[in-house]
Amino acid sequence: MIVAIDGPAGVGKSTIAKNIADKCGLFYINSGNYYRAVAYKHLSFGEKPAIDSEIIKTARSCSFSINNGKLMLDGKLIEHLLHNKKIDMASSVFSSIVEVRLIINEALRDASKSLDIIMEGRDITTVVFPNADLKFYLGASPEIRAERRFRQNESDLSLIELKKEIIKRDYNDLNKKFGALKQANDAVFIDTSYLTIEEVCDKVVQKILGLKQSKVSGES
Ligand code: DC
User: How far apart (Å, rounded) are the C-alpha atoms in residues 212 and 204?
Assistant: First the structure.
């Protein structure tokens, strides 16, 4: 089974997908971490220029694997190094390079082979797994997403700065030549603005259980 979830930055996709994976026994894959890992590796070269051909070379050189649910880059655990302002911005810019997207898409499909998965990102329902069994698009306004981030108290940015950053990342996501963020025609839209994490998870879990049930009845 493939469950695909898309939505903008800060809408809660990772928390929600992880939670649902635990509840439904699915393998969780965070596609954003792959783009972050490319940015992390490229930035770690220090003096390497941020030009497309060099970034593509870096993406090609990445070897990805998942160990105990954590993304490994070139055999090393790196997930804890992927969330800071520099990587937020670099991954947002690097992910607009078409070749980088093609490399990551292949790695994502490879990681999912013969598994029941839940994957979240920006183009999972439209490009990576257009034939996913279930598709969801999570939405919330930039104001609400900035407020949530601010309340998490994990950033030293002000509320206004957080909102500006979210708007900038939305712009990059929505305006990609390939793999732009958009709602697939057959995706279920969930407005998370006034829902708790639990309430969003419940909606998705209900659909997954419904699908599992219909598969069982179809078999018998
Ligand atoms: O979900 P995230 O914020 O961790 O993703 C990091 C960056 O990667 C973000 O700027 C958007 C980009 N991304 C993408 O272009 N396509 C995906 N499927 C997932 C993430």
Answer: 12
Q: Do residues 121 and 99 share a domain?
A: no
What does the pLDDT read at residue 157? 87
Would you say the CB of residue 92 lies under 6 angstroms from ligand 1?
yes
Name the residue at shortest CA distance from atom 13 of ligand 1: 32
User: Of ligand 1's atoms, which has the minimum distance to the CA of residue 83?
Assistant: 4
163 ligand 1 Cβ < 6 A: no
Q: What residues make up the domain containing 94?
A: 32-115
Entry pTM: 0.94
Ligand 1 atom closest to the Cα of residue 36 is 6
207 Cα to the center of ligand 1, angstroms:
25
In tens, the pLDDT along 83-109 reads 998 998 899 999 999 999 999 999 999
122 and 195 part of one domain: yes
Domain of residue 165, CATH code = 3.40.50.300
Instruction: For residue 204, give every residue at least 6 positions away whose Cβ sits within 8 Å of its Cβ, in sequence order, or none.
Output: 3, 5, 16, 20, 134, 136, 190
